[in-house]
Task: structure prediction
Amino acid sequence: MQLRVTSLPGDGIGPEVTSQAICVLEEIATGFGHDLELDEKEIGGAALEKFGKPLPDATIQACIRSQAVMLGAVGNPAFDNNPRELRPESGLLRLRQELGAFANLRPAVFYPSLATSSPLRDEVIKGTDILIVRELLGGLYFGEPRSIEGTSGRREAVNTMRYSEMEIERIARIAFQLAQKRRKKLLSVDKANVLECSRLWREVVTRVGRDFSDVQLSHMYVDSAAMTLVLRPTQFDVVLTENMFGDILSDQAGGVVGALGLLASASIGGPVGLYEPVHGSAPDIAGQNIANPLGAILSVALMLRHTFHLHKEAECVEAGVISTLMGGFRTRDIAGPEERAVSTVEMGAQIAEFVRMAAGTYDREAS
Ligand code: IPM
Ligand code: MG
Result:
């Protein structure tokens, strides 16, 4: 099978983790007999430095021509005072829009071998396996009008939370379909006691739910969901929520399972899938070869599954991550005080090596 992928390393630790993810993808292509066609382009601060804009046309074109995009991270404090359109983050938000990627899937799974990384007690965290389905193209991130206006000292800022029934319905359908393939539990998170957007959200999600009678739907306010996520994380299966709530809850879920660096994401719904680790550019540790590449590598697994429907290949990557963690390999963020930390490159090489050894043992026909 031909795999046409655009890689966008971006900023901070983005290039370091992306190159490990790409090594693993190359190993998968070789081991399972696929033809990988790679293109690399700039986004975010890296694109601002080179072209003066965070999402150059050449980057958009390359992404649209490919089937999937692997992104590292965007964000560079050097551009913090830029106007909004000239911030690195604007490049990513526009890319999500250009690709029509309205459904952001963020799995947060607890790995027993990382029991000491989670701040939660073993009996609370054991068995946690959550899929956050975050709406990615609506809400406060994109709503108009938006502005900061007025004279200094008397300025006013405006953002608009806006959702249409269509936008709610399409993300709800994806979440229900995913819940059908899991434990058939869907929790929709909103703030319907205060916000109109959330009232419409709850109404539409409930209506869509009638088409999925095998899925048990429940609703929770976001404040209560944030608390329950820490107190009883195993209670969650699929969590459906709007853009901003999903941004916040997914970082929290990273903390709950013990490592934001481990979280992967898939942004789908459009013609081209966008895959990126949930962590950001972490400028404070950039260039030191200490970042955790597992979020990026697990994003490759999501790409194999969601864009290419290569399930065996996705399982192989995930098995590589589990086996590497069981083997005691830890980057600094997940290493205990007594444990030796390995570098980004060493961690990536472990997974690549696993794939190299294991690929032959998978039954290609069954893939
Ligand atoms: C994320 C990030 C982005 C977001 C930023 C970098 C724009 O925090 O993917 O969670 O807020 O969506
Ligand atoms: Mg975020």
